[in-house]
Amino acid sequence: IMSQAVTFVVEHGQLIGARQVPSPNYNQRPQGTEIQLLVIHNISLPPSQFGGGYIEKFFQNQLDWNDHPYFKTIEGMQVSAHVLILRTGEVLQFVNFNDRAWHAGRSSYLGKAECNDYSIGIELEGSDDQPFSELQYQALSQVTHALRQAYPKIASHIAGHSDIAPQRKTDPGPYFQWQKFRDLLRDSTHFE
User: Fold this and answer.
1) Which burial class, exposed, middle or buried, applies to 51 when counting CB atoms under 10 A from its CB (0-12, 13-18, 19+)?
2) Is 123 designated active site?
């Protein structure tokens, strides 16, 4: 379980302080692309069930599609996020921030299409029908603080998956407390 003591720092696109779990599901960002958006998601495999390590396996293309009937519905999908924050507050990095993770799909932010090109994706282990854990909010604010220092443009550009793909996506969902997250972020700037 993560304590307040973890300090995250971004070095060469790597989140120091996170467990590194490389995903093969990434590619290069378009030449000269600036990182300017942070996208918050939720994911649980099977839906609304936590633990079990299935998300890690999914992002590494190692999920056994026979382990659960739901997995058949996502069989063959190749997906990743830059970072996953578990219910325990543990932070895992799957894709270097300088690379393009496959998290947003067809999407648009402020009229600019293909958010994967210029965004960082953070998945919270969770669902649209349950609250997130206190440890997740703490970890998310600490990781976001480190990202804002490394990529200043995202400071005022943080969106939910539902904001950039409203026809397709509902996450991070009604239980994600945006105000609480903003308050934690504001508090984290006092530790400079």
Assistant:
1) exposed
2) yes
* Single-letter amino acid, residue 43: I
Q: Give the angle subtended at the CA of 24 by the CAs of 126 and 133, to the nearest 5°.
A: 15
Choice among 34, 75, 123, 192 that is catalytic: 123
Q: The pTM is what?
A: 0.95
pLDDT in tens, 4-54: 557 899 999 999 999 999 999 999 999 999 999 999 999 999 999 999 999
Helical residues (DSSP H) of the chain, grouped into ranges: 54-59, 134-150, 161-164, 178-188
For the record, the structure tokens of 18 come out as 């996170």
96 close to 140: Cβ distance less than 8 angstroms: no
3-state secondary structure of 86: coil
Total count of residues recorded for the chain = 192
| 88-137 pLDDT, tens digit each | 999 999 999 999 999 999 999 999 999 999 999 999 999 999 999 999 99
β-strand pairing of 99-101 with 83-85:
unpaired
